[in-house]
Amino acid sequence: MAMLAILILPLMYLGWTAVAVVIPTAVASMANPGPHGFTEVVYAYTSQTGNNGSAFAGLSGNILFYNLTGAIAMLVGRFWMIIPAMAIAGSLAQKKSIPPSAGTFPTTGGLFVGLVVGVIVIIGGLTFFPALALGPIAEHFAMVAGTLFAAN
């Protein structure tokens, strides 16, 4: 259940972004081609999954494809991630409390905090770094190299 709760959000914004960059009508509504247009689509789906729904100005998101997929992303981001979290909470509520022993991992020390922060950074990095490498990082290197992406 924990993995399902962690993977639902990235599947929404990365999955819909992958679909949006290959559907011709969705690609046609991007005003900026290349890495910047990709970043606009990633941002739009990340924002919609996170319940905000904003987008960069270069993305004409008022087409049927973006309206439907954005609605699905909002629905899943708002409600479907709650189901595994509630299942975990119910499972933990049913467990009996036992006193700490020599094999108990303390959750009040720096080691636990470091492990939690490390897992969050690793999951966030694995989730967002590929999209960042294809978007803003690629755009920066193209800008330094003098490459421009002009609209067709």
Number of domains: 1
Shape: elongated
Oligomerization state:
single chain
The number of distinct β-strands equals 0
**In which range does the helix fraction lie?**
55-70%
Order of helices and strands: HHHHHH
Number of helices: 6
Low-confidence spans:
none
List the helices and strands and how they pair.
Layout (H helix, E strand, L loop, with lengths): L1 H19 L3 H5 L6 H15 L14 H17 L1 H13 L15 H36 L7
Helix pairs in contact: 1-3, 1-4, 3-4, 3-6
Describe the structure.
- With 152 residues, this protein is mainly alpha-helical.
- The chain has helices at 2-20, 24-28, 35-49, 64-80, 82-94, 110-145.
- The protein has one domain (2-93, 108-145).
- The chain has six helices and no strands.
- Helix 1 (2-20) packs across helix 3 and helix 3 (35-49) packs antiparallel against helix 6 (110-145).
Question: What can be said about this structure in brief?
Answer:
The chain has 152 residues and is mainly alpha-helical.
Primary descriptors:
single chain, 152 residues, mainly alpha, 6 helices, elongated
